[in-house]
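Thread: Modeling a multi-component assembly for a lab meeting

Hi all, long-time lurker, first post. My supervisor asked me to bring a structural picture of a complex we are working on to next week's group meeting, and I have zero experience with this. I have the sequence lines for every component (860 residues in total). Could someone generate the structure of the whole assembly? Inputs are pasted exactly as I received them:
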Amino acid sequence: MKKNNIHIGEYNMDYFDRTNSDLQKAYEVEKKKYTSFIKAKLNLNMARGKPCKEQLDLSDGMLDILNSKNVVSDYRNYGGLEGIKEARELFAKVAGVSEQEIIIGNNSSLNMMFDYLMRAMQFGVNGKPAWCTMKTVKFLCPSPGYDRHFAICETLGIEMITIPMKEDGPDMDLVETLASSDESIKGIWCVPRFSNPDGVVYSDEVVDRLANMKTASDFVIMWDNAYCVHALYSDAPELKNILTACKEAGNSNRPIMFGSTSKITYPGSGIAFMSASVTNINSALDKMKIQSIGPDKLTQLAHVKFLKDIDGIKAIMQLHAEILRPKFEMVISALTNNFSDTDLVKWNNPTGGYFISLYVKNGCAKKVCELCKKAGMILTPAGATYPLNLDDYDSNIRIAPTFPPLDELEKACDILVCCIKLAIIESITK
Amino acid sequence: MKKNNIHIGEYNMDYFDRTNSDLQKAYEVEKKKYTSFIKAKLNLNMARGKPCKEQLDLSDGMLDILNSKNVVSDYRNYGGLEGIKEARELFAKVAGVSEQEIIIGNNSSLNMMFDYLMRAMQFGVNGKPAWCTMKTVKFLCPSPGYDRHFAICETLGIEMITIPMKEDGPDMDLVETLASSDESIKGIWCVPRFSNPDGVVYSDEVVDRLANMKTASDFVIMWDNAYCVHALYSDAPELKNILTACKEAGNSNRPIMFGSTSKITYPGSGIAFMSASVTNINSALDKMKIQSIGPDKLTQLAHVKFLKDIDGIKAIMQLHAEILRPKFEMVISALTNNFSDTDLVKWNNPTGGYFISLYVKNGCAKKVCELCKKAGMILTPAGATYPLNLDDYDSNIRIAPTFPPLDELEKACDILVCCIKLAIIESITK
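Re: Modeling a multi-component assembly
Sure thing. I ran the full set together rather than chain by chain. Output:
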């Protein structure tokens, strides 16, 4: 394949010949399809990593677990700030920590992350001054990444430094150089297994380098292990335990790890957990005891009784994977069928998580999203996967294939492929 | 009754005659009782405003409402930051606001208060600078009051100014003078109906003065209406609507109101709500959308289906009152039987709420709590009802009679009465 040729599906368009008849033909064919999508007044959504109805149904048995005949008194009353013992036991195993190293909260791990950073702003980390008293606080943001992480930093006035993602995690040469040379860099955001959106699983080497690198003494690894047990295929890579690695490196208070059952049971009514060294857990509880008397213990109890043990969690995650695999494969297949012979459209082939990360010709991502929107399909806004929405290349689009039913997803893929082609041809011919 | 006589029950002790034989006799009798309490190795608790088992049982039907057969899809998934429509409708009526003026959260109103003040510290109030950038932030603290309110201020470094409580609410002359003369005073804590612990219902005049007084433009009334529907008797006074009063005064953004079902359904698994002007609600949601994707909607749905409507809430509150009235009356009766003829022990006669506020002879409250503890009964620590635990008179003790069963409460009253007598006689004779 010559580099100066643009291949899109059946068309072979010479970039330097704008009168190329294939190019014109391609554009007209796609435009016609696009007009028909608009006429159909569709209402499709591939914007957010939402489980679909069939996935939610997997956990409906949880609603039958507790009833007026079997409820235990103590679980209804106040107390238990750190979460019920049964839930700490179970999710300690999921998080790879001890029972004393985990707090079970209410329904949102994002809430636990936000609160952690609010406490850092207000009270400081590891006995150092409150971040709000510092002139500048910076965070390393491997990107593309999770827009809600970046939104927290933006809201708290934390400066974000974009770190390129590589195939085995963030660019660690850059991370090490920055973290060791700038005391105002106070943390890094990581989605270490099936990263959002690239689907990357951090390599053991990356985990070790994060654990061992030189940093400010109040530097925090925000380890959002949202997809810890969310493999699509049984041979998906495992993740090295960051807390163990940090302990071995003598930096046991560096990582704060988060997870939830939002994509195991119910997104809105799951339970979230935060794990860390005992020192960090006690320090968090010391402020949390001022914030609340305790989490909803009945929801925690229902979860433990429903999921039972680590094998129960593995079993339900298998069922999730069975529902999700055809969806991921449909999108991958649509992209492969149409763009396998061009360098202008690339994507990852995730083995877990909730996203496909799509890279279109530089300068075309916003246009693709705009065209899709007009045709009745919402995508995560282009740029959202970068700090302050700044994708310098205007190339990355996060595709969330989990929520739509398969027939809608097929239509969504048609629209996506059509819009990519239109955007690229327009960018070439304008 | 002569002022220089100390009457405790059957004993009539002349303060100026320390050799009074009644005094010696009384002390010996009580000491003997006290020794028998210690021998019995009791384990009683009147420390916290916890509902008892029979109260929790009233809501167990809520656990049978949702099941795998009737669950509605949308309530299981992400979203709905402001709470489900049905819950906003119902609790807007409880709070006396419109549906747009309320947010339904998770299980803890304390959490909503803490988060509100964390946002004030970090982002400011009403468009004014963040409180954390100010040299001094002060709060008015009507006292005795709720220890957890004071703990939030202490944790956030907010200076507390103790305001005496009167029979119709805080000393408003002092509140007005301070609020209008010091820009660094940014708020006031209020438990306006059945105040914690005095059981005071703020008068209409107090509400109006709070709404109309001159304050800093980012002054906040933290209106913790924890006991809004928690009357013990049907003729308990109603509370004037603070939001309406503030709107009429042109200060609609001044009050932030809180409530929960912690003492309507389950303390640990209820739902909390925050109500305020639409401007304030939108401003809170603007930050909350960064903090979380939304609350647990299934718990909200179960609550609405269980409680049904405002009449349903009134009905369950009647049942709570029936369980609680004998407990309150038992304590009041024990106090009356023993201390009705002395000025050295006073108490309120609450018509609602969760506490009896006990005032013992100055300098004796800590001693009473200490004696009770040794005899196997935990009380709220003396001083806890004042900012920084500073009860200048060492006089107030918060009695929480709701949790123990009646037979334990009877024993607890015996111990309390005995310890009060011992402490007072010791203070006279030492």
